Description:
The protein is of the alpha+beta class. It has 3 domains: about 1-75, Aspartate Aminotransferase, domain 1 (Alpha-Beta Complex), CATH 3.90.1150; about 85-180, Arc Repressor Mutant, subunit A; about 200-245, no CATH class. It contains 11 helices and 9 strands. The strands form 3 sheets. Strands 1-3-2 form a 3-stranded antiparallel β-sheet. A 3-stranded antiparallel β-sheet has the order 4-6-5. The chain has a 3-stranded antiparallel β-sheet with strand order 8-7-9. A hairpin with an 8-residue loop joins strand 7 (about 200) and strand 8. Helix 1 (about 1-10) packs across helix 3 (about 35-50).
Amino acid sequence: xxxxxxxxLIANRVLREGTGNEIISKLNEIDxxxxxxxxxxxxxxxxxxxxxxxVINAKxxxxxxxxxxxxxxxxxxxxxxxxxxxxxxxxxFKAILDTLYSxxxxxPRDRFSISMGLIRDxxxxxxxxxxxxxxxxxxxxxxxxxxxxxxxxRQGDEIIAPSLRTLAELNSYLQEQYGQEGTDTYRKCAGCxxxxxxxxxxxxxxxxxxxxxxxxxxxxxxxDESNQKxxxxxxxxxxxLTVHPLS
Length: 247
């Protein structure tokens, strides 16, 4: 049973709790067992540790659904050699992340997303010299297909944003590069303390309060609209800005 869940994680890197429970339910019925998803994931995590992999818990920022993500624990030489991207493509990916997290992209409001048509124009000149538009688009499509970026479509325009996999597996890198010691654009949800790129943002300029939508529901549960105030600056949070690639 653990092999089936492990294969699902290896294939997709991200397993949603609902999908995992459906798989476990069917396997329990076939095998006559009564295992939970948590038990099976524990076995999987133990089995992959020797390969410098781990299974971590996160959640979907939009729905709040728990998700389980297979991540590299360390960049060993073997892992580096096994990567599906060459050094130049990794450099381009880092440049794309720089653009997604740049102060220009996220001012005066958070966005963490960019139109596919604009992204190359926003990359620095050195990157643009080395990669044509077609090459940049090809690498982005590969990053999307392998779960490193998420693509949305808004009125025919393709929008690129960080994926669940990137936010989980590269979280330390994102904090180092874009936290207060870097560009100071990395954000966390005040409700769950997990990374924030989708949800609601206080309207007060400079206020750092961010809440995922589900966390906002919990945060303000039982309060009428007149009492839904920002916990940091006291501003009316019913008019909070929506942060989403499609907004």
